[in-house]
Specification:
By secondary structure, this protein is an alpha/beta fold. It has four helices and four strands; from the N terminus they run E-H-E-H-E-H-E-H. It starts with 19 loop residues before the first strand and ends with a helix.
């Protein structure tokens, strides 16, 4: 909705001038690979040059925030994407990993000012995770592009 005299900075999905870092967990690799395929397709579809995308893999979801922080602090990236899958098991470990990982990702973007699109799935089953990979990977790519452009305009 526009109001008379109000300036608006809207959605900008032009990725042609952006540098994007992607951190992906290797745990639950088949799910993560599907997220990566969806994310990469969307990044390229929105004009991000393949040479401007760096993929870093880490052992699991808890290691994602540290790698994101290092990339953000490098000054080389306009936005970052976190890809992974935490699938509920029989213990409390699911909650610990999910909460700490999400908190860490949020902290990286707030502490560094570099946008981070969080596409780490937290699901009850592998089937639920697989069902979300195509949409969540692409949404993360679009979020990263939009937020990088927004940060440039603010």
């Amino acid at each position: 909705m526009k109001y008379d005299g109000m300036e608006e900075i809207g959605q900008n999905l032009d990725g042609s001038q952006l540098r994007i870092g992607v951190v992906m967990s290797r745990f639950n690799r088949d799910i993560c690979d599907a997220l990566l395929a969806s994310c990469t397709h969307a990044l390229l579809s929105h004009g991000v040059p393949a040479t401007n995308v760096l993929l870093v893999t880490v052992p699991g979801a808890l290691e994602i925030p540290l790698a994101l922080r290092k990339l953000a602090q490098s000054g080389r990236f306009d936005a970052l994407v976190a890809l992974g899958a935490v699938v509920r098991g029989d213990t409390y470990h699911f909650e610990v990993v999910s909460n700490e990982m999400a908190s860490g990702i949020t902290r990286v973007q707030l502490d560094t000012g570099v946008p981070v699109a969080n596409a780490v799935l937290t699901t009850d089953t592998d089937e639920q995770a697989h069902a979300r990979t195509a949409v969540k990977g692409a949404e993360a790519a679009e979020c990263a592009i939009e937020m990088a452009n927004l940060m440039r305009n603010l």
